[in-house]
Every structure is written in C-alpha cells, then in structure tokens.
Specification:
about 260 residues; alpha+beta; Alpha-Beta Plaits; ten-stranded mixed β-sheet
C-alpha cells in the first residue's frame, strides 16, 4: 500500500492549530489536520490518518509543513496534490506530493525544522502600514535594533537546556534542545525576520525566543542577559511570548530515507 508525503501550506488564522481536536460532547474544532484528513479521505474514497511533522498552535501559519498518509488509490502521484486541493478549504494548500517508503514517519524521521517570526517596528509598525499583512506580521511601535538582536541570537545556537524559553506546561521529559541556527535580518526598513532552525522545539519556544530578542532590540536587555537566562533556565528572565500570527513553519528536513520498494 503506497505512502504519500505532502508538503502543506496554510493560513493558520482561522484554525485551532494543526492537531485534530474532537472534544467530548462538543463539535470538533477546525484544525489543519482535520481539514486535510477530510479532503484526502474524500479524494481516495476511504478513511485516512494524516500525520504531520509539527503540531503548530492556533493562529500559527505553515509554509513547509510535512504530512504523510497511507492509502490505496488510483490517483497518479503527479495528480495527488491537485486532487486533494480541489477538496480543501481556501486557507490550506498541498504544495507537492510524492510516494515514499512505507516506514516514513514525518515526526521521528525529521532531522531539523525551521520557524520564521516576522516583525514590523517603529513607524512601519502602525496599522496603516500593515493593512494587508496584519494577519502574518506582528507589530510594535518600538524601534528595534536588529544588529543587537542578531548578536544575542547567536548565544542560543548549540545544544542547551531551554527550560527558560518554554511555557511551564510544555509536557516534555527533557528541555534540552539543539539549535542549529538563529538569525535576525532586516530585509527592508522597519521589518525584522527571525529564523530559528533546530532539531525540535518546546511549547512556545520560538515565540519566547522572539520575545526575548525583541527586548534586546528595544534596549531593555542585552546579550549578556540572554546568556545568563539560558544558563539559569529562569523563565522570568526571558522575554514575553509573542502572539502566534507572526510565526510560520518554514521547512522540515529529513535525512536519507529508505528506497521505495517496487513490486511487480
């Protein structure tokens, strides 16, 4: 039975996150996984379970989410994305589809993933300047120094205990994570993009990293303070959790996968 890997993009504004949510005695919440499973099941004419690489929160967007499902179907792989998209709501799109090894697991096979946080600041952070982007860019009237933020971001690269950069209810056995890259750039006046790539992330970790770097950018703290907060694992020493709408899952990467078995 073939297994399909999808690359999925979505506007998270009107979703309750990625993961399917079926509360007892209440209607199911609108989630990206739920929308995908409904569309795929309709396309292949059988129930399916669609697994996703990253459980993005409510309001968080995705550009390179990776999902997978297994199903017998007559739909050619080169038409699979089109078939699913025809049955999806307008705020979700399958960017590509391919057949992978039957053992492929989008979660455990992942070797790295990257999130991007977009910020408008100073005079460019007003509602009038963000009329068509306010669903995807967080704004602040504070003017931020992206060079200070970039210097502080470098402190986070490496394998550390990120307990101070996670919400208390993160639910993980260990808070040690590896960050492969943490960059801050200003692609145009009044705009800052933070990108964080790593092996995996704790609950709200990227949004807390972004909030901490904003505090550095506005001059409230500095690189030394970020280094101390990392060393002490003290959540009260890190910045606020920025809102979800500025966050986007950029990509998910995998190592070498087993070859597809061909029979016949």
């Amino acid at each position: 039975m073939p297994r399909f890997r999808l690359v999925v993009a979505y506007d998270g504004t009107h979703f309750h996150g990625w993961q399917r949510q079926d509360p007892p005695d209440a209607p199911s919440l609108r989630t990206v996984q739920g929308a995908l499973e409904t569309a795929v099941a309709t396309a292949v004419a059988r129930p399916v379970i669609v697994m996703g690489a990253s459980r993005t929160d409510a309001g968080v967007h995705g550009f390179g989410q990776v999902a997978a499902f297994t199903a017998e179907t007559r739909i050619p792989v080169d038409r699979m994305a089109m078939a699913i998209n025809a049955r999806l709501p307008r705020d979700v799109r399958v960017r590509s589809a391919e057949v992978v090894h039957h053992s492929f697991d989008p979660i455990s096979d992942c070797v790295s993933k990257c999130y991007r946080y977009s910020i408008a600041h100073g005079d460019f952070g007003t509602d009038g300047n963000l009329l068509f982007e306010k669903r995807y860019v967080w704004s602040t009237r504070n003017t931020l120094d992206h060079t200070r933020m970039a210097a502080a971001a470098g402190v986070l690269v490496g394998t550390h205990d990120f307990a101070g950069f996670a919400q208390a209810s993160h639910g993980r056995e260990t808070t040690v994570r590896s960050i492969y890259g943490c960059t801050v750039i200003s692609p145009q006046p009044g705009r800052i993009i933070i990108e964080v790539a790593g092996s995996g992330f704790l609950y709200n970790m990227v949004r807390i990293i972004a909030g901490t770097l904003v505090e550095v950018g506005r001059g409230k703290t500095d690189t030394a303070h970020v280094r101390e907060a990392l060393a002490t694992c003290n959540r009260t020493a890190t910045g606020p959790t920025l809102p979800p709408h500025g966050l986007r899952l950029e990509w998910v990467r995998y190592g070498a996968l087993p070859p597809i078995e061909v029979h016949g």
